[in-house]
Amino acid sequence: MQSLIEKADVLVEALPYMRRFVGKTIIIKYGGHAMTDDSLRASFAVDVVLLKFIGLKPVIVHGGGPQIAATLDRLGMESTFVEGLRVTDDETMDVVEMVLGGKVNREVVDSIQRAGGRSVGLTGSDGALLQVCRKQVNGKDIGRVGEIVEIDPRVLDSVSESGFIPVIAPIGVDRDGLTYNVNADEAAGGLASALESEKLMLLTDVEGVLDSEGTLISQIKAGEVEKYFLDGTITGGMIPKVRCCVDALEHGVSRAHIVDGRVLHAVLLEIFTDDAGVGTLLTP
Asked: What is the CATH number that goes with domain 22-283?
């Protein structure tokens, strides 16, 4: 009987959050270990399906850097990076489209449907969803890497309102119809702003933002992040993730989370429980 009561307590704890978020759009950037570990992949799919069934509007943007790197390696093609961005010539872009728009996107869609949901795979070039220009890094051309200039969310509105969960590969398109590789965090942040999302969640392979002693910082206000950049608390690959979250907050997103995707059911724990600890929350 006690175990049944504890299950009821969990539902009661979640009830205020269900009321708050019903009908709201939640953008989730899906990547890292959560995409490659079988148990984490299954728990993520169940989480997303549950969100949809109780009335939220989840939108998934997935990465796929390791999968792209593995495919390039098998083909004998070199991976080159400039400030964390993959230099993408025409041949590399063919691989990016094949892996992101094909293999990885299909796998995410299939996992959601195996969990009982209905999902549709898209790329940012479908319906001119992610419109981009060619990105320059310190004046240097790094090939077909896109910087988002405009987002047309109508295709997502149609998919979501029809009862499907959109799964988006971060491939953009320019005004001439040429496709580009887009950073998945940037794509997720841009979509969160365009869709006036209630939440932006970035799943990562780390606990969240850590202080100098390695302890999780459970909450950061947007105005504090420059301090953390200057004192070295936020470094490396965490910098663009935090900047992405702050940019989304400045464009109307209510809250942004950097979530430890290595935790089973991390999405549900972050949204529906009173306990902190599965990541770092950023607020305006």
From this structure: 3.40.1160.10
